[in-house]
Amino acid sequence: MGFWNFLKSIANTIKSAISSRIEEAETRTDEIKVKDVKICSRFEYEGDSVYVYNDDCIKELNKDNTDFVICLTRDAKFEIDIKRFTRLNNESEKKWYNARLYVVFKKGFKTDGTSAPKFFQNILPSCRAMDDDSSQVYNLAAFVHDGLYACNGEIKEKGAPGNESVGRRCKLTRHECDNILADLWTKSGLVSDLTANLAEVGVNLAAGGRDHWDNDSYKCRDDFSVEIEYLGE
Q1: pTM
Q2: Which helix (H) or strand (E) holds 117?
Q3: Beta strands 76-88 and 94-105: pairing type?
Q4: Which helix (H) or strand (E) holds 8?
């Protein structure tokens, strides 16, 4: 890529991010805050289920290449309790709700994890060894963020506020998805509040363009699902 093309690419990325932020600001809801996480079924993958991802295809692992994709070898399930979730009720009034997210990753779900720049990898590695609960929650942050971005923030509702009907869908904004990412990192105990907040800002700028939002490049939209249950105001 030539120098001017490189500058043009940077300018387009910045323009796309700014436009997306302005568009989102018009409809943005209040922040989501994570209260707790329950591990129902843990993440698992094997050495032969890690792949290098480049040139728009997944290839066998080259251990000299740090750009990799993890493929889960079994289903994984988590419950994420939310203590601050704002939505309009049937009377179009803005209300706070406690809620629970039921998150399912099916066998075969692929993700590149945190995707932090290489100079930041010592603080936010792409994936941590999944041998304890803290690492599971740390990895959950990036994995669920990837899934939500691939699904354009769209999740199922287990009964809407003031409406017990099941099967409706709710759409999270990018801002809310980024909130979940940062809060889960801090809940893991492996990332400080300051680091998580700075990383959230970076994600919102770097991944704010349409190349990331609603991008299912790993073809895993059907291998990921989130259902929200409202637990009261």
Answers
A1: 0.78
A2: none
A3: antiparallel
A4: helix 3-25
